[in-house]
Design goal:
By secondary structure, the chain is α/β, with parallel strands linked by helices. It contains 10 helices and 11 strands. InterPro entries: Glyco_trans_9 (IPR002201), LPS_LOS_Heptosyltrfase (IPR051199).
Length: about 300
């Protein structure tokens, strides 16, 4: 059995779609999977069981990337094609069954819309696959002992970025309550991401620099070793929630009702004002500290107590 799964170019959307793949892996234990996604998201699926191939869909003028995808898939008879991009590609492939996500932006949580594609309510939680090597590297970098707190101070546009000095104030306030805490600073590849994270790293000399040069499964393995995560609305936020780390997402003009973190222990906090237009600078440190402490306490209770706290 062969399944084609077309998912997002954006990392956060692709992470949210992994729950559907997890369902299909269980439902069809003999199936082999081909994943079609954008370059940024491709690494998500490196350790996925029974993945036969990843087709990287790079945007081209005049939507020619869809033609390239069709050419890559047309010689195969598919048992199931799942298209979360709502393209016409699968209509021109030999397929026994198709599940196509229709429509543009709709009100409500994105995760619920994804679940509807396969008729799943409630929708499945996102997952993340890592290898033994990924987990071993993460354990060497973040050994047992400290309470590792992941901070993600970057995002793909300035409107989502909570000021760096507030991340620093947050880390210091949390360390007063959790003396065994050490921050882990995560950010994406590229000079722009590094520059956004630099003020936080400089102000927190005990922080571990875990940004820029890691593959997505390695980042996921690092996040899984953290006792908590606080970060901007980003792919890293969704990745943290997917691995089960207690995750607090920070929202300004982006829509928390649509893209809040989804996981076993995840919540968002938004700047005051109308959703979709509230500046993230309106989100003060005090309510974030309060929400983070409550989330960390909840996560510690699940894990059986404070790890590394004095």
């Amino acid at each position: 059995m062969r399944i084609l799964f077309i998912t997002s170019t954006r990392l956060g959307d692709a992470v949210l779609s992994t729950g559907l793949l997890d369902v299909l892996l269980v439902r069809y234990p003999q199936a082999r999977f081909t994943i079609a996604c954008g370059p940024v998201a491709a690494g998500l699926f490196e350790a996925m069981p029974r993945r036969e191939r990843t087709i990287v869909v790079t945007k081209r003028k005049y939507d020619l990337h869809w033609l390239a995808l069709w050419r890559a898939c047309v010689g195969i008879r598919w048992d199931l094609c799942v298209d979360l991009r709502g393209s016409a590609v699968t209509l021109f492939l030999a397929a026994r069954r198709r599940a196509i996500m229709r429509g543009g932006r709709r009100p409500g949580a994105r995760i619920a819309h994804l679940g509807q594609v396969l008729g799943l309510s409630p929708p499945p939680l996102p997952v993340m696959w890592t290898s033994a090597a990924d987990r071993a590297r993460a354990a060497a970098m973040l050994p047992d002992g400290p309470f590792w707190l992941a901070l993600a101070p970057t995002a793909n546009w300035a409107g989502k970025v909570w000021p760096a000095e507030r991340f620093v104030a947050l880390a210091r306030a949390l360390k007063e309550q959790w003396p065994g805490m050490r921050p882990v600073i995560l950010y994406g590849p590229g000079e722009g991401e590094r520059l956004m994270a630099a003020p936080v790293l400089e102000a927190l000399p005990d922080a571990v620099d875990a940004g820029g040069g890691f593959a997505l499964p390695q980042v996921a393995a690092l996040l899984a070793r953290c006792g908590g995560f606080v970060g901007n609305d980003s792919g890293l936020m969704h990745l943290s929630a997917a691995v089960g780390t207690p995750t607090l997402g920070l929202f300004g003009p982006s829509r928390m009702s649509e893209y809040g973190p989804v996981g076993r222990c995840a919540l968002g906090i938004a700047a005051p004002g109308p959703e979709g237009s509230a500046p993230i600078a309106g989100l003060e440190v005090a309510p974030v500290v309060e929400a983070a402490l409550a989330l960390l306490e909840r996560g510690a209770a699940v894990r059986g107590g404070r790890e590394g706290a004095a």
